Amino acid sequence: MPSTLIGPTSHYFYSLRLKLHYVDWGNHDKPPLLLIHGGRDHARNWDRVALDLRRDYHVIAPDLRGHGDSQWALGSSYSMIDYTLDVAQLLGAVDLFPITIIGHSLGGAIALQYTGTYPDRVRKVVAIEGLGPAPELIREVKPAHERMREWIGEMQALARRHPHRYKTLDEAVARMREANPHLCAEHARELTVQGCYRDEDGTYLWKFDNYVRAASPYLFNVQDARTFWQQITCPVLLLRGMDSWASDPEKDGRASAFRDYRLVNVPKAGHWVHHDQLDVFLRAVREFLA
Q1: Which tens digits make up the pLDDT trace of 195-221?
Q2: Cα 38 to Cα 176: distance, rounded to the nearest angstrom
Q3: CA 206, CA 7: separation in Å to the nearest integer?
Q4: 3-class DSSP state for residue 36?
Q5: Which residues contact 257 (CB under 8 A, 6 or more apart)?
Q6: How far apart are CA 284 and CA 205, in angstroms?
Q7: Domain total for the chain?
Q8: What is the CATH number of the domain that holds 23?
Q9: pTM of the entire predicted model
Q10: Which residues, in sequence order, are CB contacts of 173 under 8 Å at separation 6+?
Q11: Does a structural domain hold residue 230?
């Protein structure tokens, strides 16, 4: 069977009464590897990575709450603490310790927070632009009451916002390529097919809950984040696309919080390093995990 036809099996687990989905790429006798996607992405975002790494690892990848085929968090918002709890629930259910974790963006932040909470459970961790906003982006702090008022307004606006519908799958693919110009047409179609669904009227919609767009009124706390990072005892690989908005963590000082880390800046890659330079990404990861 051609490797492009190999796919994972689907499974479910529960966290805070939500039914959450994850995929399993098999090879249960191999070392466990968890892949955590970023915001508004999905577990199948990792397909090309998993097809390679499954040769040597038992790969599992969850759909975060409100994403992919996982249940939406109705009546509550989406926060880092909830996502981290969900990962803890998943790993407790599959009982694969110690485990290696790779996370992208939001998923990278979750991976680092989980590892800082349970350092003895993680063998190695890879964070693709998972350190949060650059320090210069959070220097100007609005008073808490202003942030709360803006957040309430944002939530009310999201309540009035209807998910965008695409008349054809090709329209959705075009939007995917607009969001990431580095993607080739074939890869953009793969991500779109797994990341959207066809409604009864024949239109296509993204699977993620629109409410995951909302930013918390509680600012990213660099001091708390550094506390988590300082608890990590395993080796850490930090990956950054040189065409991305993310700043260099060595130059801005954030990398100094890690005891044992390696930084790789990837040329000709934006925020989605594992999409934009897959071969470079896989070489760096395999060298780090060896």
Answers
A1: 999 999 999 999 999 999 988 888 778
A2: 15
A3: 21
A4: strand
A5: 225, 226, 229, 230
A6: 35
A7: 1
A8: 3.40.50.1820
A9: 0.96
A10: 185, 188, 189, 192
A11: yes
